[in-house]
């Protein structure tokens, strides 16, 4: 028979599965919405049809990704009530309004104006259509703002008072709730990650088509724009990640101990463990490859600064170290690989070989999914790292779950796995199919039949080429 | 603004705004229907 611990584990697996599936799509659509706004703005400003073609090409992909993100997001919000009813009851007065704003944003800004983006160009005109695109791009950011505020409050709760019935109630100011200590760092780090994820997905599609046809102007443009993003934003993201890490050290030091694999305290400077196998049973990292004192330098900016380890934390308050340790390294490793691609593209661009170096295109193609993997690894780091708490230091995960029978949770988990793999596999396959088609002049919009001009080879003007771009 | 004008650009503003409101409303309703369907399924 399954006991209470199994029910809790099943509920956690279900949440981890559905939220991981869900976040893949917002990680893409947040950046893609802004990319679409940039493309449409460039089209309106320059008049080059190439930008409109690219806008239409990516709009179809955005629509599918957005639909899957919204549908999987709705499941997430319902799951708070089904599997985490105790948490919802205790924290509802604080996080409920913030989550409501997120849902309202998703409905009235993102979904509403997405319809105008998809079907409105021939109905509302260029200016209103561009306004709708900007509303969707802004809406994705506002939506991220609210949901990340909720998550950050769960990590670093402030601005609340405890009710007599054990509920968390809003305190004197909502500002203290919304702008809790980790929120600004998490918001910037996550939204920048979404922009980078999109840049590498766009870059991979551009690289794929450049490998097949180096003269494709549309592929050149999207690859060039993506590589600018990689070169400029990847270093910014690394700095933001560092700032977020220092904030975590201040407010959730146990999470950083797990990330660093520091089972024991280091009073005279802690090493940076690059790789190793965390052994929680023996409280050590086996086969550790480490750089002496570097962790103290990174975290405290002092080689000899003391850092506490997990030996100062009761076992029942310790997160699963192995998962956090490795997820963190995957995220950081991919971040530096992104920086490498960005720098490589700068070298290629400076030598006029951005569209010529096939190995750069192959590397960009391989790195296409890297953003998705990095954001999931980042979320695993921060979510597993704050265990065993749902509201850090105040409400344990074990005390947050609904009083459900294990078979009920197991059955719904199984249903989610089957339905998600069926629905989202089809959606992802369709997105990859759209990406596999090369972007071309006179790209058809959503709900439009493609314009076919049989027997006519488009000249530079029809292909959207700028003077001198041929 | 240099982007190629669409047919709608020459239409009166009230008509374009009406289309915008109609498409926006239809999109919100469509998502509402999806949300309700998922809610019934989960219940």
What descriptors fit this protein?
heterodimer; A: 470 residues; mainly alpha; two-stranded antiparallel sheet; 68% helix; disordered C terminus; B: 43 residues; 1 helix; 70% helix; elongated
Please tell me how large the radius of gyration of chain B is: 17 Å
Looking at the structure, what is the overall shape of chain B?
elongated
Mean pLDDT of chain A: 89
Task: Give the overall form of chain A.
Answer: globular
> For the terminal residues of chain B, how far apart are their CA atoms?
51 Å
Side by side, the strands of the main sheet of chain A go 1-2
Largest sheet of chain A: 2 strands, antiparallel
Using only C-alpha atoms, the radius of gyration of chain A works out to 24 Å
The proportion of residues in beta strands of chain B is: under 5%
Succession of helices and strands of chain A: HHHHEEHHHHEEHHHHEEH
Strand content of chain A: 5-15%
Structural class by helix and strand composition of chain A: mainly alpha
Helical segment tally of chain A? 13
Main interface: chain pair and counts? A-B, 33 and 28 residues
Main sheet characteristics of chain B: none
What percentage of residues of chain A falls in helices of 4 or more residues? Answer: 55-70%
Count every beta strand of chain B, where a strand is a DSSP E run of 2 or more residues: 0
């Amino acid at each position: 028979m399954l006991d209470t611990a199994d029910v809790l584990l099943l509920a956690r697996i279900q949440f981890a599965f559905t939220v991981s599936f869900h976040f893949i799509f917002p990680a893409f659509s947040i950046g893609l919405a802004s990319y679409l706004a940039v493309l449409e703005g460039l089209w309106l400003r320059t008049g080059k049809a190439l930008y409109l073609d690219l806008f239409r090409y990516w709009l179809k992909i955005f629509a599918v990704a957005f639909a899957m993100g919204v549908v999987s997001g709705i499941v997430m919000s319902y799951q708070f009530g089904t599997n985490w009813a105790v948490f919802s009851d205790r924290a509802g007065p604080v996080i409920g309004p913030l989550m409501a704003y997120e849902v309202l944003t998703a409905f009235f800004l993102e979904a509403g104006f997405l319809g105008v983006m998809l079907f409105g160009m021939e109905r509302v005109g260029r200016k209103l259509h561009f306004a709708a695109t900007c509303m969707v791009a802004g809406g994705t950011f506002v939506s991220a703002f609210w949901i990340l505020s909720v998550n950050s409050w769960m990590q670093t709760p402030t601005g609340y008072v405890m009710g007599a019935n054990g509920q968390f109630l809003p305190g004197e100011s909502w500002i203290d709730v919304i702008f809790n200590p980790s929120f600004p760092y998490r918001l910037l780090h996550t939204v920048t990650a979404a922009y980078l994820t999109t840049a590498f997905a766009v870059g991979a599609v551009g690289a794929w088509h450049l490998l097949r046809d180096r003269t494709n102007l549309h592929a050149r443009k999207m690859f060039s724009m993506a590589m600018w993003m990689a070169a400029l934003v990847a270093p910014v993201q690394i700095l933001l990640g560092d700032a977020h890490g220092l904030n975590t050290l201040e407010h959730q030091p146990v999470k950083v101990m797990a990330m660093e694999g520091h089972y024991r305290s280091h009073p005279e400077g802690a090493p940076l463990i690059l790789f190793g196998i965390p052994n929680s049973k023996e409280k050590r990292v086996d086969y550790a490859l480490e750089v002496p004192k570097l962790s103290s330098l990174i975290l405290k900016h002092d080689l000899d600064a003391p850092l506490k380890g997990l030996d100062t934390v009761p076992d029942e308050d310790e997160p699963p170290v192995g998962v956090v340790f490795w997820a963190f390294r995957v995220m950081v490793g991919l971040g530096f690989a992104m920086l490498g691609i960005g720098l490589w593209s700068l070298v290629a661009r400076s030598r006029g070989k951005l569209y010529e170096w096939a190995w750069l295109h192959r590397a960009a193609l391989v790195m296409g999914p890297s953003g998705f993997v990095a954001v999931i690894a980042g979320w695993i780091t921060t979510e597993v790292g704050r265990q065993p708490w749902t509201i850090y230091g105040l409400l344990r995960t074990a005390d947050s779950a609904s009083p459900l029978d294990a078979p009920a949770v197991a059955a719904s988990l199984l249903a989610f796995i089957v339905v998600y793999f069926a629905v989202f596999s089809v959606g992802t396959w369709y997105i990859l199919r759209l990406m596999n088609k090369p972007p071309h002049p006179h790209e058809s919009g959503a709900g439009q039949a493609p314009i076919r001009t049989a027997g006519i080879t488009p000249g530079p003007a029809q292909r959207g080429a700028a003077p001198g771009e041929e | 603004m240099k982007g190629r004008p669409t047919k709608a650009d020459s239409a009166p503003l009230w008509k374009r705004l009406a289309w915008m409101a109609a498409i926006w409303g239809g999109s919100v309703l469509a998502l509402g229907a999806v949300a309700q369907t998922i809610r019934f399924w989960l219940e």
